[in-house]
Amino acid sequence: MQIQKLKQLISKILIKYNLNKKDAEICAKALINAELVGAPSHGVSRLKMYCERIKKKVINPKPKIKIKRVSNSVSFIDADNSIGFVAADTGIKETIKIAKKTGIAFVGIKNSGHYGLSGYYIEQAVKKNLLAFAFTNAPPAIAPHGGKKTIFGTNPICFGSPTNSKIPFIFDTSMSIINRGKIRVAAKLNKSIPKGVALDKFGKQTTNAKKALSGVQLPIAGFRGSGLAWMVDILTGVFVGSAHSGKVKDPFDDFRGPQNIGHLFIAFKNNLFVKNFKQQIKVNINRVKNIPKIKGEKIYYPGERKFFRKKLNSKKNIKIPSSIKKDLDNLLS
Ligand SMILES: NC(=O)c1ccc[n+]([C@@H]2O[C@H](COP(=O)([O-])OP(=O)(O)OC[C@H]3O[C@@H](n4cnc5c(N)ncnc54)[C@H](O)[C@@H]3O)[C@@H](O)[C@H]2O)c1
């Protein structure tokens, strides 16, 4: 489907589900971006779930988002159970505004929902010449080291930095070996998942996506990964005042109430300590990229391949699997 047409279709659906035009467009842009960067598991395939949550009154389509200035550089946002894209859009705009003014911004967001790809927001700060971090929690997927029950989300950590070119450095990774969205898509399409990324509910390795969803996902780097997931749970749950320690609701199958997800955005100017950041980042990237390479390999910095993928995909139509196209048609009818 043509990108513009798909964007209009998503907006139209969300307006039907009571979002205003501006918020519907914010969501459409974020979902289209996921498709273009090659993350369809966070793209249009999720629209049905967001609409179902609105219908069941666990996402508020007309939130009254409150921004409280805690100090010159700190804001605290109550997203009023809005769809995560709108909460995060408000959050990153506030973060950029503060950081441009004071040099550093620290913005916590509570009562939000699933916001998609962290890198999408961090890229917006990087475009304004800021370095930035994003943290968000997510529904239980990972067990703590030594445990056999999920309690931490895949809790992505994202860091972005301007570079000497227009391709930003965006390191954006889940704390699980693969993200949950990929497992959900595999389960829907009856496909298997790679070996070594998940255990079934009995603690046995599995490549069956459905069994993995009811079991546990394995963290990156063993106890270090589950430690990082725990850190994100503290920062975006306990610290920000959102759900934590296993209490974030699964957006697909827990409709007992809002997810109450928390996000934390931090951004700062690149000249806080040095005057030649842009010059030195160029030196840094060149040195790293020019080390001897394994035969047949190339060194990319995080975000580089995604940038090229998006550029290429932006010139093409977006492929929508027929089952998802059917979902979109049903949502409009
Ligand atoms: N909102 C949520 O609840 C939630 C939860 C989990 C993940 N996510 C999002 O899902 C997305 C995908 O997460 P993921 O863990 O699957 O990421 P991934 O494994 O695809 O990539 C992780 C990072 O590694 C980099 N990378 C990949 N291949 C590389 C290479 N060859 N050389 C150098 N760098 C390379 C990528 O640019 C990226 O920054 C992220 O945007 C994340 O924010 C969201």
What does it look like?
The structure is a single chain. The model has no long low-confidence stretch (mean pLDDT 96). 40% of the residues lie in helices and 15% in strands. The chain has helices spanning 3-16, 21-36, 47-55, 84-102, 118-127, 180-188, 209-214, 223-238, 277-289, 304-313, 322-332; strands spanning 66-71, 74-78, 104-112, 130-136, 157-161, 169-173, 198-199, 216-217, 261-269. The chain is an alpha+beta fold and 333 residues long. The two termini are 19 Å apart. The strands form two sheets. Strands 1-2-3-9-4-5-6 form a seven-stranded mixed beta sheet, sandwiched between helices. It has a two-stranded antiparallel sheet with strand order 7-8. The protein has a single domain (3-176, 219-273, 311-332), classed as Ribosomal Protein S8, Chain: A, domain 1. It is globular and about 55 Å long. Strand 5 and strand 6 (169-173) form a beta hairpin. Bound molecules: nicotinamide-adenine-dinucleotide (NAD). Nicotinamide-adenine-dinucleotide (NAD) is lined by residues 39, 42, 114-119, 136, 138, 154, 156, 158, 170-174, 178-179, 300, 302-303, 306.
